[in-house]
Design brief:
Glutaminase; 304 residues; EC 3.5.1.2; alpha+beta; 45% helix; binds 6-diazenyl-5-OXO-L-norleucine
């Protein structure tokens, strides 16, 4: 086994001295003031060992990382019926692009771009009794941590400026691919994105996807096949029009968020989470991608 802590220490030292740290997301005003000098990294192995460096216990906005957990919940509720309403193809376009939705008759290319995640949010709103509370509870149970919360300010901030998401939801509605009212679905979606977690909590919450569907509390959350499918979608779609680059550089299924987090995993081996709030032009964490490339290169652990 590689000396994981020593490797994380080296990566930390090389990463924090980078002069170009990217730029924090400003289109959600509440995220604009986050200090881009934050950097945290946390690793949880399948046998339960944990390693961390930097700000791995600081909470941040998980944003699009939540789309994977929402998809997992939707899969556990309605199974393959999801695929009648959303496809599983990489979009090759930015996360908030709408043109392909118009071309594909209101079927989003995949559940990790915004339009696809809004369809998943609609499924959850239809199938959960108290959608926001039940979803938050699901994330808490996956993580084995009851302290996880929504950041209401972030949810509110995004609602005020989420014009493209309103456009996506309305377009979906026009194609009859949104069953609930636009405001209700987006209120859920903005809250799911506004969940705050630390790197350490995120590594725990994604553990079930590295562990054939069984979470940190050893409960079955998805079947093996469902976990396999979600990992495939993360690999091909988790970084939008940079999914190829992430596979090329890092070689793991993963998911980014505009809060600067990235979760990646090697099935049957580990989950690794990074947080570096500065983003590159594609909206993915610049130093998070660098650190993960270093990790898979130095450990020789990737799916390839
Ligand atoms: O809907 C949005 O635009 C945000 N709540 C989430 C976008 C996001 O995190 C994209 N990922 N890198």
């Amino acid at each position: 086994m590689p000396n994981f802590q020593a490797i994380l220490n080296t990566i930390y030292n090389d990463t924090v001295k980078a002069t170009d740290k990217g730029n924090v997301a400003t289109y959600i005003p509440e995220l604009a003031h986050i200090d881009k000098n934050n950097f945290g990294m946390h690793l949880k192995t399948i046998d339960g060992k944990v390693y961390g460096i930097g700000n791995y216990n600081t909470k941040f906005s998980i944003q699009s990382i939540s789309k994977v957990l929402a998809l997992s919940k939707a899969m556990s509720l309605i199974g393959n019926d999801i695929w009648k309403r959303v496809d599983v193809e990489p979009s090759g376009h930015p996360f908030n692009q709408l043109a392909l939705l118009e071309i594909n008759d209101g079927i989003p290319r995949n559940p990790l771009i915004n339009a696809g995640a809004i369809v998943i949010a609609d499924i959850l709103v239809s199938n959960l009794e108290n959608p926001k509370a039940d979803f938050l509870n699901y994330v808490r149970e996956l993580t084995g941590d009851q302290s996880i919360q929504f950041n209401e300010k972030v949810a509110h901030s995004e609602r005020e400026t989420g014009f493209r998401n309103f456009a996506a939801a309305n377009l979906l509605k026009s194609f009859k691919n949104l069953n609930n009212p636009v405001d209700e679905v987006l209120d859920f979606y903005f809250h799911q994105c506004a969940i705050e977690m630390t790197c350490s909590q995120l590594s725990k919450s994604f553990f079930f996807l590295a562990n054939k569907g069984k979470c940190v509390l050893n409960k079955t959350r998805l079947t093996k096949t469902q976990a396999k499918r979600i990992n495939a979608i993360m690999l091909t779609c988790g970084f939008y029009d940079e999914a190829g680059e992430f596979a090329f550089e890092v070689g793991l299924p993963g998911k980014s968020g505009v809060g600067g987090g990235i979760v990646a995993l090697l099935p049957d081996h580990f989950v690794i989470t990074t947080w570096a709030p500065g983003l590159n032009k594609k909206g993915n964490s610049k130093l998070g991608m660098f650190a993960l490339e270093q990790f898979t290169t130095k450990t020789n652990l990737s799916i390839f």
